Amino acid sequence: MTTKIFAHRGASKYAPENTLPAFELVYQMKADGIETDVQLTKDNVPILIHDEHVKRTTNGRGYVKDLTFAQLKTLDAGSWFSKKYSNTQLPSLKEFLDWAKHKPLYLNIELKNNKIDYKDLEMIVYEMLKEYQLLERTTLSTFNPESVKRMKDINRSIGVAFLTSKKNKHLIYDAKELGANAIHIKYRLLNQLLVDEAHQKKMKVRVYTVNKYPSIKRCFDVGCDGIFTDVPDIAFKYKQEKF
Ligand code: G3P
Ligand code: CA
Questions:
Q1: Probe target for ligand 1 pocket from 17, 36, 110, 111, with the most ligand atoms within 8 Å of CB
Q2: Alpha-carbon distance 17 to 221, whole Å?
Q3: In CATH, what number is assigned to the domain containing residue 192?
Q4: In which domain, by residue range, is 171 found?
Q5: Which tens digit of pLDDT belongs to each residue from 107-126?
């Protein structure tokens, strides 16, 4: 099985991250999947945005948790990136799933609950994926170990990944104890032994955020199960040349 290419926040080098234009490009660039981030609005609507605060990627102010879905929908999530994308809206998870449902893409939905532990985020996202019948091709990931456990308590068979940027000799053991099926690691943690050990223990290894050609090559060479990249076109070019 070859390494799968996940576009990180969509094709985020070329369009505003976590928006529909960035997702459309992924499809054109022939990535295998999309990684995106979900937070919860004041009125409990799952919405795709990386930061807890809207300042960096919109023209608004305030925390996602303090704004209603209607308020968040009025924000411009594209102009910060380029005028070309002015008035692009933040997509809800539902809008994203409507778009992804009939496309042959794997999904990685990262629950952004390591800084703000949104109540019931796991169940809200799970129920939506179930309704859309997308659980089979979706991995849910989080930096929050308690959230990994909560997801596994909801349904043992869903694909859950524990995300980490921290060195830990017992990472695979710890992730398995939580119930995770995969580890999603920062590139600097990658080594062949880790990948081999994970595979022996039937766990997948995916790596973020891999944008340079030599790093992409290394991930393929050591047998990673997936990479998260802002430049899925470059990763696809490498894959085409190699295989
Ligand atoms: O899911 C991989 C990666 O996206 C985790 O880090 O900060 O880009 O969400 P971050
Ligand atoms: Ca992410």
A1: 110
A2: 28
A3: 3.20.20.190
A4: 4-43+93-242
A5: 999 999 999 999 999 999 99
